[in-house]
Design goal:
It is built from 11 helices and 8 strands. The protein is α/β, with parallel strands linked by helices.
Protein backbone atom coordinates (compact mmCIF):
# COMPACT_ATOMS: atom_id res chain seq x y z
CA UNK A 1 0.00 0.00 0.00
CA UNK A 2 1.52 3.35 -1.02
CA UNK A 3 2.52 6.01 1.49
CA UNK A 4 -0.22 8.50 0.58
CA UNK A 5 -2.90 5.86 1.08
CA UNK A 6 -1.38 4.91 4.46
CA UNK A 7 -1.38 8.54 5.63
CA UNK A 8 -4.95 9.13 4.42
CA UNK A 9 -6.42 6.08 6.08
CA UNK A 10 -4.54 6.57 9.32
CA UNK A 11 -5.75 10.19 9.52
CA UNK A 12 -9.28 9.14 8.68
CA UNK A 13 -9.37 6.66 11.55
CA UNK A 14 -8.31 9.25 14.08
CA UNK A 15 -5.13 7.46 15.07
CA UNK A 16 -6.66 4.00 15.50
CA UNK A 17 -3.52 2.68 13.89
CA UNK A 18 -2.03 1.65 10.56
CA UNK A 19 -2.92 -2.03 10.98
CA UNK A 20 -6.59 -1.14 11.48
CA UNK A 21 -6.39 1.19 8.47
CA UNK A 22 -4.98 -1.59 6.31
CA UNK A 23 -7.69 -3.97 7.51
CA UNK A 24 -10.35 -1.39 6.62
CA UNK A 25 -8.85 -0.90 3.17
CA UNK A 26 -8.83 -4.64 2.59
CA UNK A 27 -12.45 -4.91 3.69
CA UNK A 28 -13.47 -2.07 1.39
CA UNK A 29 -11.65 -3.64 -1.54
CA UNK A 30 -13.46 -6.94 -0.96
CA UNK A 31 -16.94 -5.44 -1.21
CA UNK A 32 -18.59 -3.77 -4.21
CA UNK A 33 -18.23 -0.02 -4.19
CA UNK A 34 -21.34 2.12 -4.25
CA UNK A 35 -22.26 3.43 -7.68
CA UNK A 36 -22.54 7.21 -7.52
CA UNK A 37 -24.13 9.13 -10.42
CA UNK A 38 -22.34 12.11 -11.93
CA UNK A 39 -24.01 15.49 -12.38
CA UNK A 40 -22.84 18.85 -13.69
CA UNK A 41 -22.94 22.21 -11.91
CA UNK A 42 -24.40 24.40 -14.66
CA UNK A 43 -22.33 27.37 -13.47
CA UNK A 44 -19.60 25.62 -15.49
CA UNK A 45 -21.46 26.48 -18.71
CA UNK A 46 -23.41 29.51 -17.52
CA UNK A 47 -22.91 31.66 -20.62
CA UNK A 48 -24.14 28.85 -22.84
CA UNK A 49 -27.13 28.35 -20.53
CA UNK A 50 -28.02 32.03 -20.77
CA UNK A 51 -28.09 31.77 -24.56
CA UNK A 52 -29.75 28.36 -24.99
CA UNK A 53 -30.67 26.45 -21.85
CA UNK A 54 -32.66 23.72 -23.67
CA UNK A 55 -29.71 23.14 -26.01
CA UNK A 56 -27.25 22.92 -23.14
CA UNK A 57 -29.36 20.42 -21.21
CA UNK A 58 -29.67 18.28 -24.34
CA UNK A 59 -25.89 18.41 -24.92
CA UNK A 60 -25.09 17.63 -21.28
CA UNK A 61 -27.41 14.61 -21.32
CA UNK A 62 -25.86 13.35 -24.55
CA UNK A 63 -22.40 13.56 -22.94
CA UNK A 64 -23.60 11.08 -20.31
CA UNK A 65 -24.27 13.30 -17.31
CA UNK A 66 -27.15 11.97 -15.23
CA UNK A 67 -28.08 15.17 -13.47
CA UNK A 68 -27.53 18.90 -13.20
CA UNK A 69 -27.11 21.29 -10.30
CA UNK A 70 -28.53 24.76 -10.86
CA UNK A 71 -26.94 28.12 -10.03
CA UNK A 72 -29.91 30.18 -11.21
CA UNK A 73 -32.98 29.29 -13.25
CA UNK A 74 -32.65 31.61 -16.27
CA UNK A 75 -36.15 33.03 -15.76
CA UNK A 76 -37.79 29.61 -16.19
CA UNK A 77 -40.81 28.68 -14.14
CA UNK A 78 -40.53 25.46 -12.18
CA UNK A 79 -42.97 23.57 -14.42
CA UNK A 80 -41.05 24.54 -17.55
CA UNK A 81 -37.75 23.57 -15.95
CA UNK A 82 -39.13 20.17 -14.96
CA UNK A 83 -40.28 19.60 -18.54
CA UNK A 84 -36.78 20.35 -19.82
CA UNK A 85 -35.22 17.97 -17.31
CA UNK A 86 -37.68 15.19 -18.07
CA UNK A 87 -37.28 15.63 -21.82
CA UNK A 88 -33.55 14.96 -21.45
CA UNK A 89 -33.89 12.28 -18.73
CA UNK A 90 -31.88 14.42 -16.33
CA UNK A 91 -32.35 14.64 -12.57
CA UNK A 92 -31.81 17.75 -10.51
CA UNK A 93 -28.94 16.91 -8.16
CA UNK A 94 -29.01 20.22 -6.34
CA UNK A 95 -29.52 23.95 -6.48
CA UNK A 96 -27.13 26.64 -5.32
CA UNK A 97 -29.48 29.03 -3.61
CA UNK A 98 -28.58 32.12 -1.60
CA UNK A 99 -29.07 32.08 2.15
CA UNK A 100 -31.76 34.76 1.92
CA UNK A 101 -33.91 32.40 -0.18
CA UNK A 102 -33.98 29.98 2.75
CA UNK A 103 -35.23 32.29 5.48
CA UNK A 104 -38.51 34.01 6.24
CA UNK A 105 -41.30 33.94 3.66
CA UNK A 106 -38.81 33.10 0.89
CA UNK A 107 -38.26 29.59 2.23
CA UNK A 108 -41.72 28.32 1.26
CA UNK A 109 -41.28 29.62 -2.31
CA UNK A 110 -37.85 28.00 -2.58
CA UNK A 111 -39.15 24.68 -1.30
CA UNK A 112 -42.10 24.74 -3.70
CA UNK A 113 -39.93 25.47 -6.75
CA UNK A 114 -37.51 22.69 -5.86
CA UNK A 115 -40.28 20.19 -5.17
CA UNK A 116 -41.57 20.76 -8.71
CA UNK A 117 -38.15 20.23 -10.32
CA UNK A 118 -37.51 17.16 -8.18
CA UNK A 119 -34.62 18.53 -6.14
CA UNK A 120 -33.93 17.71 -2.50
CA UNK A 121 -30.52 19.39 -2.02
CA UNK A 122 -30.63 23.12 -1.18
CA UNK A 123 -27.03 24.28 -1.04
CA UNK A 124 -25.86 27.74 0.02
CA UNK A 125 -23.04 28.60 -2.43
CA UNK A 126 -21.37 31.28 -0.32
CA UNK A 127 -21.86 33.25 2.88
CA UNK A 128 -21.53 36.96 3.69
CA UNK A 129 -18.15 37.83 5.14
CA UNK A 130 -19.62 38.70 8.53
CA UNK A 131 -20.95 35.15 8.92
CA UNK A 132 -17.43 33.75 8.55
CA UNK A 133 -15.43 36.42 10.39
CA UNK A 134 -15.27 34.87 13.86
CA UNK A 135 -15.79 31.60 15.71
CA UNK A 136 -18.96 33.00 17.27
CA UNK A 137 -20.32 34.02 13.86
CA UNK A 138 -19.54 30.61 12.38
CA UNK A 139 -21.35 28.83 15.20
CA UNK A 140 -24.33 31.15 14.80
CA UNK A 141 -24.37 30.34 11.07
CA UNK A 142 -24.20 26.63 11.84
CA UNK A 143 -27.22 26.97 14.12
CA UNK A 144 -29.14 28.85 11.40
CA UNK A 145 -28.37 26.14 8.81
CA UNK A 146 -29.38 23.46 11.30
CA UNK A 147 -32.67 25.20 12.00
CA UNK A 148 -33.42 25.51 8.27
CA UNK A 149 -32.52 21.86 7.75
CA UNK A 150 -35.06 20.89 10.39
CA UNK A 151 -37.75 22.96 8.66
CA UNK A 152 -37.26 21.38 5.24
CA UNK A 153 -36.69 17.82 6.45
CA UNK A 154 -40.45 16.99 6.45
CA UNK A 155 -40.42 17.90 2.74
CA UNK A 156 -37.69 15.32 2.08
CA UNK A 157 -35.11 18.07 1.51
CA UNK A 158 -31.71 18.89 2.93
CA UNK A 159 -29.77 22.12 3.34
CA UNK A 160 -26.03 22.44 2.88
CA UNK A 161 -23.05 24.69 2.37
CA UNK A 162 -20.53 24.68 -0.49
CA UNK A 163 -16.81 24.98 0.18
CA UNK A 164 -14.63 27.88 -0.90
CA UNK A 165 -10.90 28.39 -0.51
CA UNK A 166 -11.35 30.86 2.33
CA UNK A 167 -13.13 28.23 4.40
CA UNK A 168 -9.76 26.55 5.00
CA UNK A 169 -7.83 29.66 6.07
CA UNK A 170 -7.74 29.94 9.87
CA UNK A 171 -9.91 32.34 11.82
CA UNK A 172 -8.95 32.84 15.46
CA UNK A 173 -6.63 29.87 15.11
CA UNK A 174 -9.28 27.47 13.81
CA UNK A 175 -10.37 26.28 10.37
CA UNK A 176 -13.78 27.81 9.53
CA UNK A 177 -14.99 24.71 7.67
CA UNK A 178 -14.37 22.55 10.72
CA UNK A 179 -15.93 25.03 13.14
CA UNK A 180 -19.03 25.20 10.93
CA UNK A 181 -19.52 21.47 10.55
CA UNK A 182 -18.54 20.59 14.11
CA UNK A 183 -21.39 22.86 15.21
CA UNK A 184 -23.95 22.08 12.48
CA UNK A 185 -26.46 19.26 12.88
CA UNK A 186 -26.02 16.00 10.96
CA UNK A 187 -28.74 16.91 8.45
CA UNK A 188 -26.67 19.81 7.10
CA UNK A 189 -24.93 18.73 3.89
CA UNK A 190 -21.16 19.16 3.68
CA UNK A 191 -20.62 19.95 -0.01
CA UNK A 192 -16.85 19.80 -0.19
CA UNK A 193 -15.29 21.26 -3.34
CA UNK A 194 -12.07 19.33 -3.85
CA UNK A 195 -10.30 22.00 -5.90
CA UNK A 196 -11.37 24.87 -3.66
CA UNK A 197 -10.21 23.00 -0.58
CA UNK A 198 -6.74 22.55 -2.04
CA UNK A 199 -6.67 26.15 -3.23
CA UNK A 200 -7.25 27.28 0.36
CA UNK A 201 -4.46 25.11 1.73
CA UNK A 202 -6.78 22.39 2.97
CA UNK A 203 -6.48 18.63 2.59
CA UNK A 204 -9.62 17.21 0.93
CA UNK A 205 -8.86 13.61 1.89
CA UNK A 206 -8.32 14.45 5.56
CA UNK A 207 -11.42 16.65 5.51
CA UNK A 208 -13.55 13.86 4.07
CA UNK A 209 -12.17 11.38 6.58
CA UNK A 210 -12.91 13.71 9.50
CA UNK A 211 -16.62 13.75 8.56
CA UNK A 212 -17.56 10.29 7.27
CA UNK A 213 -21.11 10.16 5.94
CA UNK A 214 -21.47 13.95 5.64
CA UNK A 215 -20.34 14.44 2.02
CA UNK A 216 -23.79 13.85 0.54
CA UNK A 217 -22.89 15.74 -2.62
CA UNK A 218 -19.32 16.65 -3.56
CA UNK A 219 -17.90 18.95 -6.21
CA UNK A 220 -15.25 17.41 -8.42
CA UNK A 221 -12.89 20.20 -9.45
CA UNK A 222 -9.25 19.89 -10.45
CA UNK A 223 -6.41 21.80 -8.80
CA UNK A 224 -3.05 22.58 -10.36
CA UNK A 225 -1.87 21.48 -13.77
CA UNK A 226 -1.85 23.59 -16.92
CA UNK A 227 -4.27 26.51 -17.41
CA UNK A 228 -7.74 25.15 -18.02
CA UNK A 229 -6.81 21.69 -16.72
CA UNK A 230 -9.80 19.37 -16.46
CA UNK A 231 -10.33 16.58 -13.95
CA UNK A 232 -7.44 14.13 -14.10
CA UNK A 233 -4.89 16.65 -15.41
CA UNK A 234 -3.80 18.20 -12.12
CA UNK A 235 -2.71 17.30 -8.60
CA UNK A 236 -5.85 15.78 -7.05
CA UNK A 237 -5.59 12.16 -5.90
CA UNK A 238 -8.88 11.26 -7.52
CA UNK A 239 -8.73 7.51 -6.90
CA UNK A 240 -8.52 8.10 -3.16
CA UNK A 241 -11.40 10.60 -3.29
CA UNK A 242 -13.58 8.14 -5.20
CA UNK A 243 -12.68 5.28 -2.89
CA UNK A 244 -13.71 7.23 0.19
CA UNK A 245 -16.95 8.55 -1.30
CA UNK A 246 -17.96 5.10 -2.51
CA UNK A 247 -17.29 3.35 0.80
CA UNK A 248 -17.58 5.75 3.77
CA UNK A 249 -18.61 9.12 2.38
CA UNK A 250 -22.36 8.73 2.34
CA UNK A 251 -22.08 10.39 -1.06
CA UNK A 252 -25.16 10.42 -3.29
CA UNK A 253 -23.90 12.59 -6.17
CA UNK A 254 -20.60 13.52 -7.76
CA UNK A 255 -20.98 17.00 -9.27
CA UNK A 256 -18.44 18.25 -11.80
CA UNK A 257 -17.61 21.96 -11.71
CA UNK A 258 -15.19 23.49 -14.19
CA UNK A 259 -14.31 27.18 -13.91
CA UNK A 260 -11.42 27.58 -16.37
CA UNK A 261 -11.19 26.43 -19.95
CA UNK A 262 -8.48 25.46 -22.40
CA UNK A 263 -11.17 24.97 -25.05
CA UNK A 264 -14.88 25.81 -24.80
CA UNK A 265 -16.89 25.31 -21.60
CA UNK A 266 -18.98 22.52 -23.14
CA UNK A 267 -15.92 20.73 -24.50
CA UNK A 268 -14.22 21.07 -21.11
CA UNK A 269 -17.08 19.55 -19.12
CA UNK A 270 -17.29 16.73 -21.66
CA UNK A 271 -13.59 16.02 -21.08
CA UNK A 272 -14.15 16.13 -17.32
CA UNK A 273 -16.80 13.42 -17.49
CA UNK A 274 -14.69 11.28 -19.80
CA UNK A 275 -11.79 11.46 -17.36
CA UNK A 276 -13.97 10.76 -14.33
CA UNK A 277 -15.14 7.55 -16.01
CA UNK A 278 -11.54 6.61 -16.87
CA UNK A 279 -10.31 7.25 -13.35
CA UNK A 280 -13.19 5.30 -11.80
CA UNK A 281 -12.18 2.24 -13.80
CA UNK A 282 -8.73 2.43 -12.23
CA UNK A 283 -9.94 3.04 -8.69
Amino acid sequence: MNQSRRVFLKAGLGGVGLLAAEQLLAANEDKPKKRIPVGLQLYSVRQDCAKDLPGVLKAVAEMGYEGVEFAGYYDRKAEEMRELLDANKLKCCGTHTALDTLVGDALARTVEYNKVIGNKYLVVPSLPRERMASIAALRETAKLLTDIAEKVKPQGMRVGYHAHAGDFKKVEGQIPWEVLFDAAGPDVIMQLDVGNCLAGGGDPLATLAKYPGRSVTIHLKEHGGKPGAVIGEGEVKWKDVFEFCETRGGTEWYIVEQESYATTPLESVKACLRNVRRLQKRA
